[in-house]
# Entry
Amino acid sequence: MRIGFLLSVLVMSVVVWQLIEKSARVNSKEVIIRQALPMDIPYEKSKALSHLNRIREAMSMQLLSENENLQNAAQAHADYLVVNDESSHNQIEGHSGFLGVKVADRAFAMGYESSHVMENLSTKNEHADSSVNGLFSAIYHRFSFLALGIDEIGVGIQQDQMNTAKSAFVYNMGNSEVNRLCLGGSFKGYGRYVYGICKNREHRIHAKKFHSTLNHVKKYNPKIILYPYDEQQEVPPAFYEEVPDPLPSHEVSGFPVSIEFNDYFFKDVTLHSFKLYEDSGKEVEDVQLMDKDSDPHYMFTKHQYALFPLKRLSYDTLYRAEVTYSSKGEEEKVVWSFKTETPQEILHIVTQSEETLHIKRGESYIIYFEPLDEHEIMRDIQFSSDVYIEFIDNHSIKMTLMSDDVDSFDIVSDTRILHVEVD
# Structure
């Protein structure tokens, strides 16, 4: 007997990454949840750091070393998020596992002396790669991973063993030299100093030494930071949502392209143009440029810029980015390229609200439902139990027919109907 399946697709703004939660409703009283596999947490921690460092290495950036205090703080927050089913950079006093409201408080509690700590986190991910890649798709969190003044990190990962869909990945990043300044003696001489940087808020650091320490890391990073980096492959075509959301008027857009000018080398930069082209030479015209003045959450610095294509990028397509800028009276141009993901299965693009697709038995297909507008997200997807469906993102599924006895079936969502005929 065939049983109809219903998948409820929930797009979660969990700090940065979107969960596609899969549940199959057999009838109105019974719900079957497809659970994520249990993670090997030590392996995923190692994998998360190595994946992040591979990206930074490909960009010629300084690699991040492990710091035990930051790792303990990150792990404590990952534990807190899972046990309380939360997704926030802040903790709530009185909740289970409370360590400190803010990331600096938690770092202090675990023995880190500097308040110069940045945090990235994602929840509901099944493995480290999806967490890191998801954070790189979100512009504010991307800039954190690519921060020029960090050189060490701690990674914390937790998963609910009774409900494996609940997971948390936490990344705490700091500057080892600033931390050492906080471990040293307080400045007692004459001249300008800074304070409020260390766990001991009265601890003074000579201002010149403090800024020199920050610049020490920056000068070993590239003058210009590009992402996607030059010749990067398998770049996701879409960006969904981030908390805070840089594009609140769009549920889905294209993958953002960013450039940051290292302020160790650049005091002032004037951006003249930021353009994106397909390999054919056609310019991607429906875009939004974001900088310090247009960032709705005032999180960009004057050296950071991002170009958001307002429509999803195409699969398996080479793109070329071009930026023209001037600094110190000289006009310069930066050109680089990247390629979007190439599906290994047969790709079919659905452009209408209702279509018919012919497939062959024994083949797997990637079905991409091209968004009907900037607000459409695929929800409440119904399909036959004879079909295996795996979500790639909120508009793309991998589909495999599991039975030789099926000649046709439908895939139905709240906005789409796809009639599938089996040849």
Observations:
- The first strand starts at residue 4 and ends at 7.
- Residues 292 and 298 are 6 Å apart (CA to CA).
- The mean pLDDT is 90.
- Residues 41-58 form the longest helix (18 residues).
